[in-house]
Amino acid sequence: MLRIHLLLAFALYCTSSGFAQGFKIQLTKATLAAKQDPFVVYQVQFKVMSGTVQNRSEFSLVRNGALKGYAQLELAEPLSAGQATRYDEVLYVLGDGVSAGQTLSSHDLANPTVPANRPFSFKTTTAFLGDAANEFFTTISNLKGVLKIGDLLEYQNVKGQRGKGRIKEITVAQKLHPVMLMDGLPANTPVSLAIVADNAIDFSDATVTSAGTLGAAPATANAGSTPTATGKTKTIPVNAVLQNDEVTITVHNLIKFNPDPATRAYDIIKVDYTLDYYVVDATFENISSHPIDAGEYLLRLNFFSADGKSADEFLRVFKKQNGTANDAQTQADAFDQLGLGGTSKIRVAPVLMKYQSMIPDYEKTHKPTVDALNGTLKPGQKVRSLVATMMGVPPTYRIEGIGTWKGTVLSKKNLLFAPIR
C-alpha cells in the first residue's frame, strides 16, 4: 500500500465544485451532441426547480423508482430556483438517456427505491492509504448488486486476511461522486471506493461482500507466509546519502527485480514486464526538531538526473499523451510533474506487492517499517526498511543518481540528490 493524500488532493482540486446538493432542474431541451466514452454528451437547456445549480453539478437519473444512471452538468455560471438557461449547456450522461421535459435531481434528492437487504460483491485492485486511520482507496471490478455510502462490508485479501469496513466515498468515471453505486454500468467504466476499515488489514486484491455474506474462510488461507510470486533479483550496494534541514535518507542498497512474466495471468493491474524494477533499502532519520511527513519524501524518491529530471516520467499517471491538445490534460500533465511527483508509484505498486510476497517474514518483520515510513517521523526517529519503495525504468535507462524533494513544487532548489557510481 502507498499513501495517496497528494493524489486525492489533486482529484478534489479537479472536482471540488461537484459536491453541492439539494437541487432539481427540468430540461426544456436535450439534444444528443457526441459520445465521449463512457459518457454520452447532450446540449441542454433547463429551468431550476429548487436549490442552486453550480458548475459541475451532479445528478442521479431515476426512472420508475430505479437508479438508471448519472449526469454531470458543465455550467457557465450558477443558477438559482426560478432561473432558466439562455444558452445551451453541456450535460455528460452515463447510463440512461435524457429528454426534454425530464426532471433531474441531485444525488441526495433523487431517492431511488432500493431493498432494505442489498447483498453485493466486488473485487478490489491495489489499495492506497488515505489520510485518516485505516482509510483505504482502491478501484473495483466485477460489481454485483447496489452499494450506498455508509454500507457495511467485509473482505478477504489475497493473503487470506479478513477485515470489515464501511463505504466512505464512491467515484465513478473520475467525474461523479454519487451516494449510490448501481450495477450495470457501461463496460470499462472506472469505479473507485474509499472505505474506513475496522483495522489496518490490507484492502488490496480483495474479495468484498456485504456484511455477513462473505462465508467461511478457506481452510488454506494463511497470513501470507507462502510466496505467491517469483522473479529474478540482484542486490546492488549504493550507500547514497540525501540530506536537507529536516531529514537524512541513506539508500543502502537497490535490489533489481524482474518479476516472472508467467504470473501475468493473475495481475489485476497491468504490469509492464519490459521494465527493470528496483526495490529501495533505505534508512530515514528525522534530524529536525519537528515531526516530518516521511511519506511525501518516500512517494517522490526516484532515480534523478543531475539536472533534476525524474524517472517518474516513464510511468506518470497524468502524463500527456503525444498529440493531446486538450487544455485540461495539459494542465494535469504540468501539475503531475511539478506538484505531485511520484505518481508512477501507483503503477509499480503491483510489482512491489509481488516482491513483498516473496519475503517469507514480510508481514511480521518488514510491514511495520513500511507502514512507519508512510507516516510521520518524530524528531530524532530513525527507521530502516528493506522494502521502502520501488522504481521502474526501461533497461536502457542510464542511472545517474537518486533523489527526492521537499515543498509543493519541484525545483533544483528543493531537490535532494546523490549520484550513484
**CATH architecture annotation of the largest domain:** Sandwich
The chain-level structural class is: mainly beta
Task: Compute the average pLDDT.
Answer: 83
- Number of helix segments? 6
CATH topology of the largest domain: Immunoglobulin-like
Proportion of residues in helical segments: 10-25%
Q: Say how many strands there are.
A: 26
What best-fitting shape do the alpha-carbon axes yield? globular
Number of domains: 3
- CATH C-level label of the largest domain: Mainly Beta
| Residue windows where pLDDT falls under 50 for at least 5 positions | 4-19, 219-227
* Rg from alpha-carbon coordinates: 24 Å
Main pleated-sheet profile: 6 strands, antiparallel
In the sheet with the most strands, the strands line up as 4-5-7-2-1-8
Percent of residues in β-strands: 35-45%
Question: What would you say this structure looks like, in words?
Answer:
The chain is 15% helix and 40% strand. The protein is mostly beta strands and 421 residues long. It starts with a helix and ends with a strand. The model is unreliable at 4-19 and 219-227 (pLDDT under 50). It has 3 domains: 18-106, Elongation Factor Tu (Ef-tu), domain 3; 120-210, Elongation Factor Tu (Ef-tu), domain 3, CATH 2.40.30.10; 231-319 and 330-419, Immunoglobulin-like, CATH 2.60.40. A hairpin with a 2-residue loop joins strand 4 and strand 5 (66-74). The strands form 7 sheets. A 6-stranded antiparallel β-sheet has the order 4-5-7-2-1-8. Strands 9-11-16-14-13-17 form a 6-stranded antiparallel β-barrel. A 4-stranded antiparallel β-sheet has the order 18-19-20-24. Keywords: Signal. Residues 1-20 form the signal peptide.
